Amino acid sequence: MSTPHINANPGDFAKTIIMSGDPLRAKLIAETYLEDVKEVTNVRGILGFTGKYKSKDISIMGHGMGAPSASIYFHELMTTYGVKNFIRVGSCGAISDNIQLKDLIVAMGASTDSKINRIRFLDHDLAAIANFDMLQACIEVLKTTTINYKVGNVFSSDLFYRPNENDYTLMAKYGVLGVEMEVNALYALAAEHQCRALALCTVTDHITQHEHLTADERRTDLHEMVKVALETAIKF
Ligand SMILES: O=P(O)(O)O[C@H]1O[C@H](CO)[C@@H](O)[C@H]1O
Ligand SMILES: O=c1cc[nH]c(=O)[nH]1
């Protein structure tokens, strides 16, 4: 059994998965932190791995950029492979002055300019929210670290390059902490399929202060977030 986008065998995935847009970030995480690691899928270069972290089975996989791509992987993992617990480790852009490059944002909920959750939810506005138990477990982990983190709303955008920069002023006024592209989809699919989901995002761009990490740093400078995700993951 495989799906159009995942060529893993039944049982290849753990119940708990850590995912990022970049499949090479997934590979780096798997090779750095997992023992007995095995590549379980590679369709279209979207790599997935399963191994052990502190004796617990954990999978790591890419999901591509944007909600349409990511939704394909979330859906197939939830419906065909029985994955139940999802933690996204992403990058994001900050839009307010009290958040700095490399800070960590824990996405309690996701606002969006995307219509995908309205397609899913009778054209109504779904409150796309994190699983409370996972959020709470993650905060307990974070309290044992020195990481600068903030918990709140992210904005999942269909556009990486937004034509009107004034939009960010309004988002900041409403308390949006960071802008990324997939959490709205992850939280809605988790609700639909009775899964747990949580997203962490490291600030790789300060959009309004015009500061950016390089492409390489977006893969290699996210270890603090990854360690928090792994320590949270093994509690489920
Ligand atoms: O770093 P990842 O996980 O890919 O997440 C963010 O980075 C990508 C854009 O550069 C989008 O996928 C966005 O959500
Ligand atoms: O979606 C994203 C991801 C990283 N940085 C951004 O500015 N936007």
From TrEMBL:
Site positions for Important for catalytic activity: 218
Catalytic residue list: 205
One Gene Ontology molecular-function label: purine-nucleoside phosphorylase activity
Catalyzed reactions per annotation: uridine + phosphate = alpha-D-ribose 1-phosphate + uracil; a purine D-ribonucleoside + phosphate = a purine nucleobase + alpha-D-ribose 1-phosphate; a purine 2'-deoxy-D-ribonucleoside + phosphate = a purine nucleobase + 2-deoxy-alpha-D-ribose 1-phosphate
Domain Nucleoside phosphorylase, residue spans: 16-223
Pfam entry (one): PNP_UDP_1
Binding residues for phosphate: 21, 25, 44, 88-91
UniProtKB keywords: Glycosyltransferase, Transferase
Binding positions for a purine D-ribonucleoside per the UniProt entry: 5, 180-182, 204-205
Known EC number: 2.4.2.1
Sequence similarity: Belongs to the PNP/UDP phosphorylase family.
Subunit structure, as described in the record: Homohexamer; trimer of homodimers.
Protein task: Catalyzes the reversible phosphorolytic breakdown of the N-glycosidic bond in the beta-(deoxy)ribonucleoside molecules, with the formation of the corresponding free purine bases and pentose-1-phosphate.
Name by which UniProt lists this protein: Purine nucleoside phosphorylase DeoD-type
